[in-house]
Amino acid sequence: MLRRRHILSAVLVAAIVGVWQVVASLPGVDHLTLASPAETWRALTNDAGLLFSNAATTLLEVALGLAIAVVLGAAIPVVVVAPLFVLAFDYGIGPKLAIVALICFFPVTVNLIDGLRSVEPELLKLMRSLGASRVATLWKVELPAALPYLFSGLRIAATVSVIGAVFGEWAGADRGLGRLVLLGINQLQTPRVYAGVVILMGMALLLFIAVSLAQRLAAPWSLEEAQA
After folding, report:
1. Taken in order 92, 93, 94, 98, is the CA torsion positive or negative?
2. What radius of gyration do the chain's Cα atoms show?
3. Which of 48, 134, 218, 222 gives the lowest tally of CB atoms within 10 Å of its CB?
4. Which of 50, 63, 59, 61 is nearest to 92 (CA)?
5. pLDDT tens-digit profile of 94-147?
6. For residue range 198-218, what is the model confidence (pLDDT) as tens digits?
7. d(CA 228, CA 79)
8. Are 163 and 227 in contact (CB under 8 A)?
9. CB-based contacts of 68: which residues, under 8 Å, 6+ apart?
10. Cα separation of 104 and 68, whole Å?
11. What stretches of the chain adopt beta strand conformation (E)?
């Protein structure tokens, strides 16, 4: 079943790339607007050093911002505060981390709260009847029950964190894939823009896979229950 799913995914990706190539090759399509997969691949190879050096900056912002979102967060519209972060922290990594953390805050926190509330009342009564402390109840009952919910939120946060980093770089940055893509748009370097977008998509996919692997290690029972 898993192998069949991988084959179907590969066929779907190949079909999308094929349609993309056909559409980009049509006579009426402006190459400054839509780069073909072949042009995107050439940009990935020719500008690999530039693209991946900026990707490292974006990935650092994503990873640290996602880590902050697991611990902290605030309910403020990101569109409103992004320029304020740039004014307060200049063009360094600080405002990007804050924006990523804000975007990732709700998926992580809401799912974690739902997980803590999902514990069966009978289990909590049993722990109290056994004289367990509040910390012991949290560690042995509530947190294990909340882990599947937490990882569900983390999978969402891992993908949108890339969007947050790009948004932060658009608000103001001197490095990063978001800035490179924006410069490519302004300079009509369409293949480089698409190459940057492909790397960002790959980054989001790898983060999603990493969270799924972490769930497999930390809460394997949740996957078994989902497959049952």
Report:
1. positive
2. 22
3. 134
4. 61
5. 777 777 887 888 888 888 888 878 877 787 787 778 777 777 777 777 788 888
6. 888 888 888 888 888 888 887
7. 42
8. no
9. 97, 98, 100, 101
10. 9
11. none
